[in-house]
Specification:
The structure holds two protein chains of two kinds.
Chain A (H helix, E strand, L loop, with lengths): L12 H4 L6 H21 L2 H27 L7 H18 L5 H20 L8 H20 L12 E2 L4 E2 L2 E2 L7 H24 L1 H11 L1 H6 L4 H28 L1 E2 L1 H4 L2 H14 L4 H25 L4 H22 L4 H14 L5
Antiparallel strand pairs in A: 1-4, 2-3
Helix pairs in contact in A: 2-7, 3-7, 3-8, 3-10, 3-12, 3-13, 4-5, 4-6, 4-10, 5-10, 7-8, 7-10, 8-10, 12-13, 13-14
Chain B lengths: L1 H13 L9 E7 L6 H22 L7 E7 L4 H12 L11 H14 L3 E2 L17 E2 L5 H15 L8 E7 L2 H4 L2 H11 L2 E7 L7 H10 L3 E5 L3 H12 L7 E3 L6 H4 L10 E4 L8 H11 L14 H24 L6 H9 L2 E2 L1 H6 L9 E2 L12 E6 L4 E4 L8 H18 L8
Parallel strand pairs in B: 1-2, 3-4, 5-6, 5-7, 7-8, 8-9
Antiparallel strand pairs in B: 9-12, 10-11, 12-13
Helix pairs in contact in B: 2-11, 2-12, 3-4, 5-7, 12-13
Classes of the chains: A mainly alpha, B alpha/beta.
């Protein structure tokens, strides 16, 4: 009834291979975009931007990045926090070094720098895989955090080792620093998320994505049919690093404004992003969003219910929150080991068959 | 779709409105969870109990009740941002972030929103320069002054000469722990001692290698900038290598009961800096017993009363209450705004009479805040742990730091901040 291929005829190859081949799905996607771009910016408040939307969007970029590497190419990485730190410090050095250049270029530049660092730490993946690779990327995590703590050049020799985002504008609108309006903060994150998601979605549908997936499914077979593991693996590291770098740059410049590397980009961050893609669904762009939403929104929601509505003590609420979020993760993964994205897929399948499921 | 559902649910959860009656809203960023809870719990209890006492005994401050808004940060900056955004709309008068990382985060934000921050003995030291930092206060003292007080104390111990001695600094590898380094470097040049720096990474449970190095290098004195679980581990490790405890001095965040008790008798003689009185030998504790504890209103488990960190936030709460009174006086109204609160903090004058009136005679030094100086005089004392009686006691008077060195550093750092952020100097 709602979700049907029936009556939706493709008359060109382009139409046939579009991202959302089903009309209903396509309209839903347009509606989400319209709401995100034209409705939310007018109603957003400081609290909604800082506690909900901006972290959600930024984590979504990081999750997309890690999903490309782990979900699509099958290379487990525990270095996400460290790579986000590279993005953050790169954008800081660029912002303070070239104050006249647009921040958008700086953020993209931070993405490229992180891509370079990621390739470097991706080199071991040519010889090792699985848990062994996870350990190698874990080393990257600790090394990078140590580096940014140790070498004063990265934080411009400030007394405390903190980096602070100076005020920067895009088209005359302040997007970083304390005087940023909530909507501006939201819009810059949204533009980057949309661009990254489109890019990622189309990369994973194309030749490169198929190479990655063949490496993930069986690397020897992939090599035999002519996939070059060197270029496939390193391109996955580079592109994943690009996205993670952008998210790290936004995380520092737009969201937090001041960052201390050990605290903001520690090993916890790596695990958080990894959990996002596991809960959301490996190898799915939608899953990256769903996982980020789940892990960013759930604690805020629970906190507001437990403390705001029920008036519980804050520490009790935090502990209960840990239990509930943990339990939900376990339950979700028992019900659907392939994550929220698979639930979504099943729901769509059911819709397609409805009302005659047999 | 899923997102929209969650957002809707969230929106309903957020609509818990607050009453509009006249009240003083004070947010409290607590951390009763996480690796720093050992410090966060007594801090939260002290602050809460003081205002409960004022509400119960006097009906608030000048008759206006105080409403504390608790928000759990877990010492995490992201949660700190969430807490700030969720509480600032309620009319928050002053933020006490109780974390140097969160303070750094909030300095620009709160300045833009016009809400004052009081980071008492932590946070950004150069915020003491009121010409640059309009909304940030760190009276009565700060890290650089702490470092200088510690060095002055050691100078006294050594007859005014530290040349050739070695002082090791064991510090939390974060903005907090790095704060004193610059001061100590300056002082080491001035007094000719060698400075050795040993970083401990968050959360600080692993310090074997640092203490091995201390054992090898045998510094004459060890200073510590630690917090949370790091303190207990460091004191235990120092005991393990039999480092003489009387040569081991912690900053005021590294000198609480919870830090020394785990090491037992071995911690006897450990010293720490102090910015306020210790023990329960003050009239205010009788009132807390009568109006708060006996009525079953004590915050938390009620087992922290009189501990070092509990007293610290009793002091913080007292300073906040005095600033509110000052603000009410200046503006002649009982309904004060954050802007008025800021004026009150800037005009704050703490006298012995005020402390005695609050039931805390001699609890801290007398001081006065001014437009230029948001940092107070920076007096600090040294306290020492007696393991047999399980008490801390002050072993010195409140001592002066080396203002010549510190003021130059504050001037330099705050001016750099002003230049970076295009801040116009005030107080001209």
């Amino acid at each position: 009834m709602f979700y049907r291929e029936a009556g939706d005829f493709s008359t060109s190859y382009k139409e046939d291979s579009q991202t959302f081949p089903i009309r209903f799905d396509r309209y839903r996607y347009y509606v989400v975009l319209v709401v995100a771009f034209l409705v939310v910016p007018f109603v957003i408040t400081d609290y909604w931007a800082n506690a909900v939307f901006v972290p959600f969007l930024i984590y979504a970029i990081a999750a997309i990045g890690l999903n490309i590497l782990t979900g699509y190419c099958g290379q487990v990485s525990l270095g996400t926090g460290g790579f986000m730190a590279v993005g953050a410090y790169a954008v800081y050095k660029l912002m303070t070094g070239f104050p006249d250049v647009s921040i958008v270029i700086h953020i993209i530049g931070a993405g490229f720098i992180t891509a370079g660092v990621c390739i470097l730490f991706g080199l071991p993946s040519l010889r090792i895989k699985g848990f062994y690779l996870a350990v190698a990327t874990l080393a990257a995590q600790f090394f990078l955090v140590w580096l940014f703590n140790r070498v004063a050049w990265f934080y411009n020799y400030s007394a405390s080792g903190q980096i602070n985002a100076p005020e920067r504008e895009v088209l005359g609108i302040v997007v970083t620093g304390p005087n940023t309006e909530a909507w501006a903060q939201y819009m810059i994150s949204l533009v980057f998320v949309t661009a990254c998601a489109l890019l990622a979605r189309n990369l994973t549908r194309g030749k490169l994505g198929r190479q990655w997936m063949s490496i993930r499914d069986m690397d020897i077979a992939a090599e035999i049919i002519g996939v070059n593991p060197l270029s496939a693996k390193l391109s996955a590291f580079a592109i994943s690093g690009f996205f993670i770098g952008i998210s790290g740059a936004l995380f520092f410049a737009v969201y937090l404004g001041a960052v201390e590397v050990g605290e903001a980009f520690g090993i916890n961050k790596s695990f958080l992003v990894l959990f996002m893609i596991i809960i959301g669904g490996l190898g799915s762009i939608f899953g990256s969003f769903a996982g980020a939403a789940f892990l960013v929104l759930m604690p805020v929601l629970l906190k507001n219910i437990l403390v705001g509505q029920f008036g519980w003590a804050t520490d009790l609420a935090v502990h209960i929150e840990f239990i509930i979020v943990g339990a939900l993760i376990v339950i979700f993964l028992i019900i659907e080991p392939h994550g929220l994205a698979q639930l979504w897929r099943l729901a769509k399948e059911k819709l397609r068959l409805w009302p005659f499921p047999h | 779709m899923k997102l929209k559902l969650v957002t809707m649910a969230l929106a309903t959860a957020l609509t818990a409105g607050s009453a509009v009656a006249q009240e003083l809203v004070l947010p409290w960023m607590s951390y009763r969870t996480g690796p720093y809870a050992v410090g966060g719990i007594p801090l939260a209890d002290g602050y809460t109990d003081y205002f409960t006492l004022l509400n119960e005994r006097d009906g608030g401050i000048n008759g206006v009740p105080v409403r504390l808004v608790n928000c759990e940060t877990g010492y995490n900056t992201e949660k700190g941002v969430e807490c700030y955004e969720s509480t600032k709309g309620e009319g928050a008068l002053v933020y006490q972030p109780l974390s140097t990382g969160i303070t750094y985060q909030l300095i620009p934000k709160a300045t833009a929103d016009g809400i004052p921050i009081h980071s008492m003995g932590y946070g950004r030291t150069s915020a003491a320069n009121g010409k640059v930092f309009k909304n940030v206060f760190n009276y009565p003292t700060n890290y650089w002054q702490a470092a200088s007080v510690a060095v002055n104390y050691l100078l006294d111990e050594n007859g005014g000469d530290l040349s050739g001695k070695t002082i090791a600094l064991v510090y939390h590898n974060s903005a907090y722990g790095k704060e004193p380094i610059r001061t100590l470097e300056e002082l080491s040049k001035k007094h000719g001692f060698n400075l050795s720096l040993l970083a401990v990474d968050h959360p600080g449970q692993e310090q074997k290698s640092q203490w091995l190095q201390i054992r090898r290098e045998r510094p004459d004195y060890v200073l510590m900038w630690g917090w949370g679980v790091m303190n207990q581990v460091a004191i235990q490790e120092a005991a393990n290598i039999r480092f003489p405890m009387e040569n081991f001095i912690g900053v005021w965040w590294s000198g609480a009961e919870a830090d020394v008790i785990p090491a037992g008798d071995a911690a006897n003689g450990y010293k720490a800096l102090a910015m306020n009185g210790v023990g329960t030998n003050f009239p205010i504790f009788d009132d807390i017993q009568k109006y708060v504890v006996d009525r079953g209103l004590a915050a938390g488990a009620g087992d922290q009363i009189g501990t070092v960190l509990y007293n610290r936030t009793i002091y913080a709460a007292f300073l906040a209450a005095e600033a509110i009174k000052t603000a009410m006086e200046i503006h002649g109204t009982k309904d004060i705004t954050p802007e008025m609160m800021r004026d009150g903090m800037e005009a704050l004058n703490i006298t012995e009479a005020k402390m005695a009136a609050a039931g805390m005679p001699g609890f801290g030094p007398e001081f006065q805040v001014s437009c230029e100086n948001h940092g107070g005089p920076g007096l600090g004392a040294v306290q020492q742990w007696d393991a047999s009686t399980g008490t801390w006691s002050l072993i010195t008077d409140f001592m002066e730091p080396d203002s010549e060195v510190i003021n130059a550093l504050i001037e330099e750092d705050s001016m750099a901040y002003a230049a970076e952020n295009n801040i116009e100097l005030r107080c001209n």
